[in-house]
């Protein structure tokens, strides 16, 4: 078995745990994507106040690249407007974290989970943002 080389950009995010775990209290918009069976499952929680994201948390079952992508995204979306978050793409996440090309798929799962959370908040209509 060969080990995963995350690259210098993603490696610190693999160890970032301050936003791991979604608190049980009300007010979180939850989205999830992927599956444990397929090797990557992401649950993403957003808390909104008005038209801003004030907190973001994640839970991940997957490889270090999936954890790094979720951690980076959770920190990056805090303070952003939902429209800006809806335009964040998994390929962009993978590029910014310098993930190996074969790990781009895990960043796409993170993107899907974030979009599902936005949809749960009623902020996505079709492909556009409400």
Characterize the structure shown:
- The chain has 130 residues and is α+β, with helices and mostly antiparallel strands.
- It is built from 5 helices and 5 strands; from the N terminus they run αβββααααββ.
- A 3-stranded antiparallel β-sheet has the order 1-2-3. It has a two-stranded antiparallel sheet with strand order 4-5.
- Strand 4 and strand 5 form a beta hairpin.
- Helix 2 packs across helix 5 and helix 4 crosses helix 5.
- The chain starts with 10 loop residues before the first helix and ends with a strand.
Q: Summarize model confidence as the mean pLDDT.
A: 84
Query: Which percent band covers the strand fraction?
Result: 15-25%
* Strand neighbour order, sheet with most strands: 1-2-3
What's the tally of helices? 5
Briefly note the structural class of the backbone.
alpha+beta
Biggest beta sheet summary: 3 strands, antiparallel
- Number of E-type strands: 5
Radius of gyration from CA coordinates = 14 Å
Low-pLDDT parts are none
């Amino acid at each position: 078995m060969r080990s995963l080389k995350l690259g210098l950009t993603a490696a610190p995010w693999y160890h970032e745990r301050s936003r791991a775990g979604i608190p049980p209290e009300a007010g979180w918009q939850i989205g999830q994507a992927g599956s444990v069976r397929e090797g990557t499952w992401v649950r993403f929680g957003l808390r909104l106040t008005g038209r801003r994201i004030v907190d973001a948390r994640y839970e991940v079952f997957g490889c270090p690249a999936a954890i790094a992508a979720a951690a980076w995204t959770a920190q990056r979306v805090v303070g952003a407007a939902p429209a800006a978050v809806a335009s964040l793409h998994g390929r962009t996440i993978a590029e910014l974290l310098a993930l190996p090309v074969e790990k781009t798929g895990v960043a796409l799962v993170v993107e899907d989970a974030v979009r599902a959370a936005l949809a749960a908040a009623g902020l996505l209509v079709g492909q556009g943002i409400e």
